[in-house]
Specification:
8-stranded mixed sheet; 5-stranded antiparallel sheet; 198 residues; mainly beta; 40% strand; 4 helices
Length: 198
């Protein structure tokens, strides 16, 4: 599942003051599994962006960066407590998946909104003695995404994301909004600045 995404300036179509706040955080625009990304939490009714590491610590897998929506609420699962108490939204400008090719190798694909605005992805976070971590939630794929991968990030419209932060939304279906999918050069081969997000 997704282990690489970008967070770039989404332009003037964004969600007001929260987009301005997110721009103030530093890090590389390309976020990889285990790297630093920006999440938005709700604290006393206010949306607060924060930098965290992408991935929950796990004894067996070391780092788990995606939580399956169909296993979130299992009473003995690792996601039950964060789902109940620690929710966040993750702003993403585009994310990447790699398709296995019949004769070996992988073809990367980029997913984004046609108008270039951010995708808001439902997530969970935790605080540990080594810092704060987050994981993105995934759903099953749409028919379009299934051509490339069997999972899709839990993309929500901004208002739906606010309901998730308030605890009013607990289930996810594959995103039915417009997504552009295009083959691309691997983003891991491009040089990326380690400066500001924007």
């Amino acid at each position: 599942m997704c282990n690489t995404y970008n967070i770039r300036d989404a332009g003037k179509k964004e969600c007001g003051k929260i987009a301005e706040k997110v721009k103030g955080f530093k890090g590389a625009p390309l976020v990889r599994r285990g790297g630093q990304g920006v999440v938005v939490r709700q604290v006393k009714g206010e949306l607060v962006p924060e930098t965290m590491r992408w991935g929950f610590d796990h004894t067996q897998y070391k780092l788990v960066n995606n939580a399956r929506s169909d296993s979130l609420a299992r009473s003995n699962g690792m996601w039950a407590e964060p789902l109940a108490e620690r929710r966040c939204l993750v702003p993403i400008s585009e994310f990447y998946e790699w398709q296995e090719l019949p004769h070996g190798g992988k073809q990367p694909y980029e997913f984004r909104k046609p108008d270039g605005s951010w995708l808001w992805v439902a997530g969970l976070y935790e605080h540990t003695d080594r810092g704060s971590n987050y994981a993105t939630i995934t759903t099953g794929p749409t028919p379009q995404v299934a051509k490339v991968h069997d999972r899709l990030l839990a993309v929500v419209e901004f208002e739906e994301g606010l309901a998730f932060l308030r605890g009013e939304k607990n289930d996810f279906t594959p995103y039915n909004g417009a997504l552009e999918l295009r083959s691309c050069v691997s983003p891991l081969r491009r040089p990326h600045s380690q400066g500001e997000l924007f």
